[in-house]
């Protein structure tokens, strides 16, 4: 039902659509409330049976939770997102605890193995494996991004080691790039930066912050980002471990560009990973530096990010760039604001969606706060 009503949402919120928009939003809120009630009842039944006895039902509930969370964030953002994300995180951890044990640390791959069916083709995921892999990927991404907002270590960082071990010969248990278009190692670096930010905050509160150690820790992360960017400059955006075509990427590319023309895949992949790298470096600089040095280095990083945004020609992909845009926008200098506004204008067709609308609001509020400080 959410997909049906989502298709009815007027993207044009201009004069003349008020009545239609109001009626649609009322129905959406009713459906969202009904869906949340259904999830709560399913969760109660699962608690009564126990996650350890209900792997299949647990996976279905996790999928429903993530769909509900995604719908809320995209359409009707509220202060409940953290509660709902924590609930999904808790269920994921229980699934791993009861069905992912292969040693001292639960493994995502073990859950996928336990979801396998003897009659299913060995080289293909069944529906439950696919659902768990897809929605768990979204959950880990949401956990990483929320950690940057809440200034804390990602709750699911324990499971990042399994993703870091995925190499050229090993199919990753989860595919974060399939969801965001950004290679997983960049998202893991962002998680490392949020951990560094939390460490810095704790050290400052205790009066024990060592600038030398902070710079050392930040430099190791920056080196990862720098070397990754060099690889992209040499080989392009295609991750060497994933040469095959990605279904979601192909679908979004086919949906076309702002000008209505489909994206020409022969021209190479969209520079999504590059954008995330520059945004991650901007985030890292905001944690690492201060004073005049911060201003000069940040301006360079912001300029690199805004230039990369200009290379994105496929509108559907822009929805996944809310975090990079937000980081870029709030750290932009006054002189760089027109470039950021240009990016925002290119995304205006998506302003009805919660994540994009929230990004615009955050950037504008930060700029207003900065202007007020400058005028003092």
Automatic annotation (TrEMBL):
**Pfam family of the protein (one):** Fungal_trans_2
Show the GO cellular component annotation of the record.
nucleus
Top-rank taxon, per record:
Eukaryota
Residue ranges annotated as compositionally biased, kind Low complexity, are 242-252
Where would you find this protein in the cell? Nucleus
Q: Where is the composition biased (Polar residues)?
A: 253-263
Keyword terms, alphabetized: Nucleus
Location of region: Disordered: 232-263
Give residue spans, biased composition: Basic and acidic residues: 232-241
**What PANTHER family does this protein's entry cite?**
PRO1A C6 ZINK-FINGER PROTEIN (PTHR37534:SF20), TRANSCRIPTIONAL ACTIVATOR PROTEIN UGA3 (PTHR37534)
Q: What is this protein called?
A: Fungal zn2-cys6 binuclear cluster domain-containing protein
What is the organism of origin for this protein?
A: Fusarium flagelliforme
């Amino acid at each position: 039902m959410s997909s049906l009503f989502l298709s009815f949402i007027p993207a044009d919120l201009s004069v003349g659509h008020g009545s239609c928009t109001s009626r649609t939003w009322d129905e959406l809120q009713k459906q969202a409330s009904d869906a949340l009630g259904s999830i709560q009842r399913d969760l109660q039944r699962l608690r009564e049976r126990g996650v350890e006895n209900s792997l299949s039902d647990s996976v279905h509930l996790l999928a429903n939770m993530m769909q509900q969370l995604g719908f809320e964030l995209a359409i009707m953002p509220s202060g409940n997102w953290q509660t709902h994300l924590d609930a999904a995180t808790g269920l994921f951890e229980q699934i791993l605890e009861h069905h992912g044990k292969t040693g001292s640390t639960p493994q995502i791959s073990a859950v996928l193995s336990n979801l396998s069916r003897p009659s299913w083709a060995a080289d293909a995921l069944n529906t439950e494996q696919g659902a768990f892999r897809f929605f768990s990927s979204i959950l880990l991404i949401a956990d990483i991004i929320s950690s940057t907002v809440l200034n804390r270590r990602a709750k699911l960082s324990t499971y990042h080691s399994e993703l870091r071990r995925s190499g050229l010969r090993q199919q990753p248990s989860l595919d974060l790039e399939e969801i965001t278009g950004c290679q997983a190692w960049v998202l893991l670096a962002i998680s490392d930066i949020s951990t560094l930010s939390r460490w810095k905050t704790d050290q400052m509160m205790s009066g024990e912050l060592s600038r030398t150690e902070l710079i050392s820790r930040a430099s190791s992360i920056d080196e990862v980002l720098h070397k990754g960017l060099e690889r992209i400059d040499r080989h392009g955006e295609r991750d060497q471990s994933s040469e095959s075509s990605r279904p979601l990427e192909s679908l979004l590319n086919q949906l076309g560009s702002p000008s209505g023309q489909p994206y020409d895949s022969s021209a190479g992949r969209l520079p999504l990973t590059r954008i995330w790298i520059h945004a991650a470096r901007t985030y890292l600089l905001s944690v690492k530096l201060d004073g005049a040095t911060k201003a000069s280095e940040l301006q360079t990083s912001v300029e690199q990010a805004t230039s990369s945004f200009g290379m994105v020609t496929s509108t559907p992909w822009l929805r996944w760039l809310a975090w990079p845009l937000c980081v870029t926008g709030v750290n932009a200098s006054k002189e760089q604001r027109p470039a950021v506004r240009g990016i925002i204008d290119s995304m205006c067709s998506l302003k009805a969606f919660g994540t994009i609308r929230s990004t615009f609001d955050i950037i504008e509020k930060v700029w207003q706060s900065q202007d007020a400080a400058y005028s003092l």
